Amino acid sequence: IISVEEVAEINLPHENWTSTIARSGFGVEGEGEITLYDLIKSAVRHRPDLIIVGEVRGEEAYVLFQALATGHGGLCTLHAEDVDTAIKRLTQPPMNIPSSIIPLMNCIITVKHVRTPVFLESGKRLSSRKFVSVAEIKDAKTFPEVFSWNPSTDIFKENLSESYLLNKMASTLDIPLEKLLDELEYRKKVLMHMVEHNIRDYRSVNKVLSKYYNNPQLFQRSFSKNRSGENADAA
Fold first, then answer.
1. Given 105, 126, 152, which residue is the final one in a domain?
2. Contacts 24+ apart (CB under 8 A), 68-75
3. Cβ of 36: how many Cβ atoms within 10 Å?
4. Span 39-88, pLDDT tens digits
5. pLDDT > 80? residue 233
6. Assigned domain for 119 exists
7. 196 and 97 in one domain?
8. In the chain, what is the straight-line distance between the N-terminal and C-terminal CA atoms, in Å?
9. At CB < 8 A and 24+ separation, what contacts does 62-66 make?
10. pLDDT of 154-177, one tens digit each?
């Protein structure tokens, strides 16, 4: 994993993570300047599994998409009002991403600062940053939402059975879509278990997720055993 940022903000609990930071040049001609563009080009040469860019604003976006085209994983943030605006920003100057390679993105997650229907003891409505939607990128003009947040109920609506990516994955792996949906339902139970047990800081969450990915079968047996024990104690 290689992260690329202008200001160091990302802190990953991963032994194979390399952090790279842009820097300003010196003097009138900016000698020694290292831009995000330079860092992403350098990152690609290291053949990482994942490139994380703190924020894309200019020509570095094109290099990131070229990295995606060659099989590297990629994550980045981008300031935009919604998915449609984000696509327009990406395809126009100074980023200039061709519409033909926009589908190299799997999805766009929209995060907003919103007022929730939850009221505090003071009578004020609780405001917070929330994931308000997860949209899949089918092509440069089609991005169906698989998750969306309802501001009046503070509940997320999902439409996974119609997911373009899940159906594509099921076809690629030659397995029924229902098997993938069952796996997602199991992961949901793991996340709810962490919420119920106040496992919230990123190191503790990472510890649970690492155990799962290292040996899913062993984790599931252990998790099911622990859940059964909790249910017996409650009874």
1. 105
2. 68/101, 68/104, 68/105, 69/101, 69/104, 70/44, 72/44, 72/47, 72/48, 73/48, 73/49, 74/50, 75/50, 75/51
3. 25
4. 999 999 999 999 999 999 999 999 999 999 999 999 999 999 999 999 99
5. no
6. no
7. no
8. 45
9. 62/95, 62/96, 62/97, 63/37, 64/40, 65/97, 65/101, 65/104
10. 899 999 999 999 999 999 999 999
What's the number of CA atoms in the CB half-sphere (13 Å) around residue 163? Answer: 22
Q: Evaluate whether residue 123 is within a structural domain.
A: no
Instruction: Give me the CATH number covering residue 19.
Output: 3.40.50.300
- What is the distance between the alpha carbons of residues 76 and 74, in angstroms, rounded to a whole number? 7
Number of structural domains in the chain: 2
Residues 81 and 179 in one domain: no
Residue type, 72: H
pTM of the predicted model, to two decimals?
0.86
Residue 229 domain flag: yes
The confidence score (pLDDT) of residue 222 equals 85
Q: Which two tokens stand for residue 142?
A: 């089609």
Compute the residue count for the chain.
Answer: 235
